[in-house]
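lol forgot to send this yesterday, sorry. struct tokens for the thing we talked abt
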């Protein structure tokens, strides 16, 4: 059986920018009691705190949990508290170019968004994220906007030509993530290998965007055995199966 179970967050452990529900929190806590777990997501650290940590027991099992926000460009581990091991932040010039290119791509794509909730472009330090309906959009609205990723695949094609020196990935329900080249969930998987001393062949990755261009796909490319899920409910059944196997 695998020594490390790695999860995406949005769409896998929880609905987009929503907290873990009680059943998921219970299952994840049980899993932490028997195996090491990591979470890699496009969300920033405050999002991890709100969605994930605020719903898990603050006990010794957290030492089995590694957290990698912004697609693996940051790495947190728990000792007496949560400590950051690294953060691959953009320079000011890189930020300016990415933001300018995102705005250009939005115009070329001609996305029709009648309403937005909050900022569309968010600087997360080591990642810049475009959220089509804004960072605070209601989940129901987000689910309807681009369920088959067609709109964002068009935007990715445009961005790949505008900023080929950066990595562009699709994630969440309305988002496009931009990171430094080579720094994505594959990078996170390799850092987990190096930090925890666990071979990639001994990892299992679970995510909802494991298709080419999806922001979970680099984890699969890195060699981690992977399971694609439709939503958090399917993830729960996978976790139950893993717990049953480990026990």
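and heres what i got for the seq, position by position
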């Amino acid at each position: 059986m695998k020594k490390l179970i790695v999860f995406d967050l949005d769409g896998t452990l929880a609905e987009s920018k929503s907290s873990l529900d009680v059943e998921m929190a219970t299952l994840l806590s049980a899993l932490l009691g028997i195996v090491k777990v990591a979470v890699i997501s496009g969300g920033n650290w405050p999002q991890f705190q709100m969605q994930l940590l605020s719903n898990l027991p603050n006990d010794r099992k957290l030492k089995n949990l590694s957290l990698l926000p912004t697609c693996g460009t940051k790495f947190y581990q728990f000792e007496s508290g949560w400590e950051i091991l690294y953060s691959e932040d953009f320079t000011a010039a890189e930020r300016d170019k990415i933001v300018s290119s995102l705005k250009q791509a939005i115009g070329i794509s001609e996305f029709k968004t009648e309403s937005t909730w909050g900022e569309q472009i968010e600087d997360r330090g080591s990642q810049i994220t475009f959220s089509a309906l804004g960072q605070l959009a209601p989940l129901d609205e987000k689910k309807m906007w681009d369920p088959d990723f067609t709109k964002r695949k068009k935007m990715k094609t445009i961005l790949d030509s505008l900023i080929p020196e950066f990595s562009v990935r699709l994630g969440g329900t309305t988002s496009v993530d931009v990171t430094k080249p080579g720094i994505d969930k594959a990078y996170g998987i390799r850092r987990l290998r190096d930090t925890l001393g666990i071979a990639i062949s001994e990892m299992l990755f679970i995510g909802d965007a494991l298709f080419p261009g999806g922001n979970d796909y680099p984890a699969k490319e890195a060699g981690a055995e992977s399971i694609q899920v439709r939503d958090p409910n399917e993830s729960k059944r996978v976790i139950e199966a893993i717990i049953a196997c480990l026990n």
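The chain has two domains: 4-88+183-246, 92-179. anyway ping me if u want another try
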